[in-house]
Sequence to fold (157 residues):
Amino acid sequence: MADTNLDEIDLKILQRLQDDGRITNVELANSVGLTAPPCLRRMRALEDEGVINSYHAAIDPAKMGYTITVFAMVSLKSQAETDLQAFEEHVQKLPEVRECYMLNGEIDFILKVVAKDLQQFQSFLTSQLTAAPNVASVKTSLTIRSAKHLPGVPIQD
Fold:
């Protein structure tokens, strides 16, 4: 379903689900001006088309003991597609890496990494990240605080 096929009701459904993924179908239907059965059909169609690709709980990292968030900028020795894929496969196996993006420019990848403390992060950095095959350099920035964190994308009517 391309975004040009999304009507105003679909956009309202997406906005409400993005704001509250636990909303009941009846509440969702009421808030977008539908009855429950057509609302559920639309929601399922959005899921089937991949517009909605997951539901999850947003967990407070600090409450789980993860007090450190670091962004790691990784440069590789080679940017051959097989080497890029090998690095991506490596980070898939690292639970501390919560997000990984390949970039255009000087840095090849930026990773969002969580750790319980600086010692754990240092251990992760030296044993899992800088030691990974094809890694030329890793630059890190420790976050001080988060000023904004919104899931998803802006929904425009």
